[in-house]
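Per reviewer request, we include the raw input and output of the structure prediction for the construct analysed in the revised manuscript.
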Amino acid sequence: MSIRKHYFRAGVQLSWRGGRVVLTGRMVLAVCAVLAAAAAPVLAQYPGQVDTHAKSAPVLRAVGVLEWTGEEGKPKFSRLVPVSVFDGQTLEDAGIYLARPLPMAVDGGTEYVLEDNGRHIGLFDIEGAGQQQGAWVGFGKWKPMPKPKPAEEEQLAQTKIDDTGGDLPVLHRKHPEVTTKTGGTKSGAGTGSSTGTVGSAPSAPAPDPDRPTLHRPEQSSDTAGEPAPDPDRPTLTRPKKKTKKTEVGYVEDLPNITDPDRPRLLRGKMGQEKSDLTPTLVGLPPEMHQTIAVSDATNRPVHPWSYSWANADDEARMKAELESMARDALGLTPPPPKPEPKTKKGRRRAKPEVLQLTMPASLHDEQFRVFELAYGSGATLVLTADTGGALKGEKFVTLIAQPDLYGNLAVLLKKVSDGSHLDDSPRMRLVGAVDAMADNRGELLFELRGSTGRQFALYRVLHGQAERLFVTGGELYGVGSRE
């Protein structure tokens, strides 16, 4: 027979069954609520496994364009135009990134690696910066790449030389006998004597105490019998150099100036006491060259962007197809010949067939390049050209294409612009391929040049599309018209 007792405290029912308490009804909900309320601060204090290793700051990677005139490696005029800065997440405009007021990309002491299709061709150290046509540019010196150490020197440096000798016998050269002052002979260390004892030298005779010896006369300052020097006696001395008179306006150098408020006049540019800088490049001269410059605190392996063709004929065939597309876009392809007029009877006049060979129109300022923008990827073809002539009547075309599985070209981007509307639709000039985000994938860097300004843009080719990832701010300049 069981005894059951009921208690009601705030709607909670307790039951006694066989010597144990049974929770019934709303008791379960109440207990759960109490436990949850008690565990809430505990859970708030212990979030789980805590990572005590703080993540390191992202490595910044800056991309710029070095423009110069003259010889490669020894430019006559040069400047570096900042393009982008990758902060680990997004691409920022290097011309204004962390500008206080000088942007970080052209700060003094920044070093850029110059690349030609991914191959390192030199270094460019920023030594100064300034604004040209409303945009920041850096100027400095072009230096050659440091020569790598020979492999033999590295192996010798890492090799440890064991000079203990072990149990192997060691041969030493016998030292010649040296004549001593006493007239005897002294053998070198490690030589044997006539008796066969190693390391012993022949004993010299004992010196005779009654033997006269010669001594060098010692020099004494006070000679016996010589009177003390007269201080008033005139002496002969070497004539001293004449010093400049104080009344003459003579100024000496003051290398160590302790007064911080003392004004000093320095020859040269502000903020640079000793600097031999190459003059900066102004404007856009026709003989200007361009190459990509990359600044990264991490040393990364060289990644060439050249594509190796399995069949050399494929490159020539695809180039001819792109050139034909460029002529069609520029309007250089002649129209097809008109059909012959029909006679009254509905028949065309029979004329002897004359085979006319027409040469295709030539493309002006043509540039054709093929890239492998990722390891194992296919070929990416880029062609830029124009019609030449006066700027107002000139047309420009840029084509980006890739071959499909059947070897046919698929155009991913086609941009046509004319000289009369360059500010609305600038021409695209290819600079090269660069890994702007340090992900081992190359982007195509173009210069968007208008009639009174220009920008730089990065395009990523992926999944059969050419997408523009980034574009810089505008830069104004004056361009002479080619009338």
